Amino acid sequence: MPTTANISNDEVFAYAEANYRSIFTGAAISGTYQQYAYRYYAASGNYLGIDTSGGIAMLGPFTNNVLTEVGPVAAFATAISTWESSMGMGTISASGEVDSVPCTMVAGHHYRIQVQSTSGSLLDPEIARVLDPSQNTLANVSNADYGISQNAQVTFAPAVSGAYNVCVQGQYSTTGGYIVLVTDLDAATNSDTQTTIAAGQTYSDTVGSSFGTKTVFFSLTGGQEYQFTLQTATSGDALNTPVLRGVYDGAGKQLSGSFGQASGGALTVGITPSSTGTYYAVIADSYNDTGGFSFAFNAVAVAKSGPTYAVAEPITRTADDYAATSATSGRLIAGSAVSGNIETADDYDWFAIPLTAGSTYTFDLEGSATAQGTLADPLLGLHNSSGTVVARDDDNGTGLNARITYTPTSSDTYYLDATAASTTATGTYRLWATSSTATTTNDIAGSTATTETVSVGDYIN
After folding, report:
1. 202-311 has which fold?
2. How far is CA 434 from CA 32, 360, 367, in A?
3. Is a pLDDT exceeding 60 seen at residue 226?
4. How far apart are CA 322 and CA 337, in angstroms?
5. Which are the contacts of 178, defined by CB distance < 8 A and separation ≥ 6?
6. Tens digit of each residue's pLDDT (9 = 90 or more) over 145-189
7. Which of 56, 219, 236, 343 is deepest in the core (most CB within 10 A)?
8. CATH number, domain 86-184
9. CA distance 15 to 27
10. What are phi and psi of 306, to 5 degrees?
């Protein structure tokens, strides 16, 4: 068994970020405080720290802002080593570089390919494409962002067995380290073995190891609203706080609003898929926990009354999520993203963001044009610390999305405001912030001439 001395702090951080994205969300700020080396995740407000004696601790909203000891690094050494053994690791060391990472796949099996930042390095990894054994690009098998982070994920079933190539790059010319994880969802030895349920059925199972996951598949009809329920087991060894990591479509794209924690033992989310097809949910423990859970979903009934339609049992929606002043609770840092909702007509959501003089930043407010939300025509503004507008854009992004590129002359806290171009429009959105990144030397060839390979169970240094 690996010892504490064999596991670096970066490995612990990468393991937690990859397996608990709902807690350790987006880009992280690293630092030290007293005996702790820590990372702060602004998108979730949580801290993860490792003290000089090898103890892991958490602080933030997830722990009700109470410093909580998780356990020693040594207790997670085997789990981290096992997780790393299924990874392919590399570095995008120059702007525009594309790494080609081979992986052997079996025809007819469903595979989930995940590309994640390692050590908080590559802020926005992207699966540019996947090549089949004949080096042809597979249609519709690519992804830039999914879920509540800027990592990438796709799920597909190859038509033929052989050596495939996962092509990785940094979106928006970002550089840094990444991890490639290939999971065979149909492998009998994998904890994510395929289980299928129908609407009205309940899937009960057990997460049997710390940081374990379970995956369940189901069919959904486009345009139909569904209610998903995840709760802890009512008897026996129960999972204290089950986590719904998300509901994903066949391409591995997470549906908006489909993730959360079953705080208090139960979680209910409402989802309306845009297309008919096979979807799946990933369920996990909160941290260092095992036990039973139950998962179910039902179509929400729609009652007809005259010429109008109404949801018979509506799902409660939240009030305004972010204030339209500098007192907003919204926070953002370069290299991260945040989701929000324009709930009412003429609603503005403000986000505070620290900017450094001389650095060039790009801010993207995305909605339905790039499947990042339901807002049809986003409008984005940037204010200085006094609240004065210094930039505003409507349609410089993809489709009707908004994009602002800005280089501040002074270092200070600025404010982004997200709204709809039409004062009567509403909908959900995702707001991204990126900054220019220096480049270094290439290390992995971006072609089939590469000497690096990865298969399920392989590790690339």
Report:
1. Jelly Rolls (2.60.120)
2. 24, 9, 17
3. yes
4. 15
5. 89, 90, 91, 92, 99, 115, 116, 117, 118, 121, 122, 125, 168
6. 654 356 787 878 888 999 999 999 988 888 888 888 787 765 543
7. 56
8. 2.60.120.380
9. 14
10. 65, -135
